[in-house]
């Protein structure tokens, strides 16, 4: 008589129930010997979860059953076979069809309706216990996160992990690299590819000691941890097999914010997001026609952005910078808000500004007349008005927070409802704080003045030996020295070949 002995163990099983390999092997051999087995074939899955049917040793056992190689199959306990009831029944059916007899050490299994019912009940209970363990684990993680502690050590570059307090501590050497990456993105207007190239050129080690790649740079620039917050319970991971899983983003209402030491301030982080989006918008694959100043041109009449608009023959279109109010659906029904500024031929303005920057680079004494003035009064007024509205909103939300806390103390609402509402309110207050800081920074920028010496230094850096620049390098140079270009067409001619005239106000970084 040939006996197939199936043994499965995982780390959790060893810790919780003592299902060691040695215990199962010894008990299975003894049971098979008592039944008269003269030969043993052992199938051992060491470290494999019973949640999935795809296990190496189990697959070998099932192949042997298909060839009818065994007389009996001995397993220590039904949940060693599988934790999923459906999987248990599938394998049991395969054993019966092969002509072999299934035997368990810990329980008696009878191939009768009653025995199968009992067997199915044990399988259902095993699956239920598995789900309860998952639920307790998730609840424990949520509780830890709500206490402001990290659920686990994510090994985030830029930090060391304080295990005693479940919190990150800034690693200053790594943090210096992170700040350099943000500076290259914001101040030098570099994209992720150019940043990785620059870091590799300087010999700066990547997080894993190899070369920097684009995806690593992008993860750093978009990681909220560096602005001081990590969101726990943001993702839900579901195993679909032993080596496969799916990851889904939970609804934002379920995210739990955890404060960690910030490596860059809120303004810097959000400026980087703005620059990344700008780089994306300017990527050639996203533009039917690419232009040097696209994204930098603003209407001098109303202060709004100007965007590319094409007209004429589709095979050879003429492109213009056009005030956003004239093309955006947001202004479709607001006739009074539509700007009346004329369109600006894109190719002409691009070359005009490029030539002007070259002239200023070669003649620094001309820079004074193009240096920034006190700022755009229209934009300044809008920002101040928005800040007032944000302040009012913050007061209303803070009042709501006090009301919920009072209701909880008076037992009008339970702790779970109060906690959920307070989490949402805290997120809104954080968003208002971030937006307020960003707007204040923009307001300071509008009223600040860049010195002619700084402008001259920047122009000399980027507009020297440009004859070999690629189109991409020309755009980078533009964005390294200019914040925006305020322009308005002032000639009154409308003939097809007329020469346009503009007022141009260059705003330097």
TrEMBL record:
Keywords: DNA integration, DNA recombination, DNA-binding. Transmembrane segments: none annotated. Gene3D superfamilies: Putative Large Serine Recombinase, Chain B, Domain 2, Resolvase, N-terminal catalytic domain. PROSITE patterns: RECOMBINASE_DNA_BIND, RECOMBINASES_1, RECOMBINASES_3. Residues 2-148 form the Resolvase/invertase-type recombinase catalytic domain. The active site is at 10 (o-(5'-phospho-dna)-serine intermediate). InterPro entries: DNA_bind_recomb_sf, DNA_bind_recombinase_dom, Recombinase_CS, Resolv_N, Resolvase-like_N_sf, SSR_resolvase, Zn_ribbon_recom_dom. Residues 156-282 form the Recombinase domain. SUPFAM superfamilies: Resolvase-like (SSF53041). It comes from the Bacteria. This is Recombinase family protein. It comes from Pelosinus baikalensis.
């Amino acid at each position: 008589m040939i006996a197939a002995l199936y043994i499965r163990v995982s780390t959790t099983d060893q810790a919780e129930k003592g299902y060691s390999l040695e215990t199962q092997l010894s008990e299975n051999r003894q049971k098979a010997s008592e039944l008269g087995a003269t030969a043993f074939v052992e199938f051992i899955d060491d470290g494999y979860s019973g949640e999935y049917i795809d296990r190496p040793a189990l697959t070998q056992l099932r192949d042997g059953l298909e060839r009818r190689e065994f007389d009996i199959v001995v397993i220590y306990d039904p949940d060693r076979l599988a934790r999923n009831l459906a999987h248990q029944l599938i394998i049991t059916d395969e054993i019966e069809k092969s002509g072999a007899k299934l035997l368990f050490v810990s329980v008696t299994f009878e191939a009768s309706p009653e025995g199968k019912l009992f067997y199915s009940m044990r399988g259902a209970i095993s699956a239920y216990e598995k789900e309860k363990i998952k639920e307790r684990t998730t609840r424990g993680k949520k509780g830890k996160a709500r206490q402001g502690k990290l659920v686990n050590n994510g090994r985030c570059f830029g930090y060391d992990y304080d295990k005693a307090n479940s919190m990150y501590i800034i690693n200053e050497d790594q943090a210096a690299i992170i700040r350099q990456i943000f500076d290259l993105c914001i101040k030098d207007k570099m994209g992720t590819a150019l940043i990785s190239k620059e870091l590799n050129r300087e010999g700066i080690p990547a997080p894993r000691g190899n070369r920097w790649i684009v995806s690593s740079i992008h993860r750093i620039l978009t990681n909220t941890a560096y602005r001081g917050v990590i969101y726990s319970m943001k993702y839900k991971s579901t195993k679909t097999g032993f080596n496969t899983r799916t990851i889904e983003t939970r609804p934002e209402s379920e995210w739990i914010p955890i404060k960690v030491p910030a490596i860059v301030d809120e303004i810097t982080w959000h400026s980087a997001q703005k620059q990344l989006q700008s780089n994306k918008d300017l990527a050639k694959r996203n533009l039917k026609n690419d232009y040097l100043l696209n994204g930098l041109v603003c209407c001098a009449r109303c202060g709004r952005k100007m965007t590319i608009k094409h007209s004429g023959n589709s095979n050879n279109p003429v492109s213009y910078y056009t005030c956003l109010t004239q093309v955006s659906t947001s202004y479709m029904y607001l006739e009074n808000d539509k700007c009346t500024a004329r369109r600006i031929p894109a190719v002409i303005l691009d070359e005009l500004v490029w030539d002007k920057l070259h002239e200023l680079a070669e003649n620094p004494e001309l820079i004074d007349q193009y240096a920034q003035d006190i700022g755009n009064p229209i934009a300044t007024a809008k920002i101040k008005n928005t800040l007032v509205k944000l302040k009012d909103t913050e007061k209303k939300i803070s009042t709501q927070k006090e009301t919920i806390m009072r209701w909880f103390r008076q037992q009008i609402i339970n702790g779970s409802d109060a906690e959920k509402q307070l989490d949402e309110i805290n997120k809104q207050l954080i968003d208002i704080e971030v937006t307020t800081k960003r707007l204040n920074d923009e307001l300071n920028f509008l009223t600040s003045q860049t010195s002619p010496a700084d402008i001259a230094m920047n122009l000399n850096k980027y507009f020297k030996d440009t004859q070999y620049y690629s189109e991409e390098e020309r755009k980078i140079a533009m964005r390294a020295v200019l914040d925006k270009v305020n322009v308005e067409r002032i000639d009154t001619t409308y003939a097809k070949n007329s020469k346009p005239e503009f007022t141009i106000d260059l705003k330097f970084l």
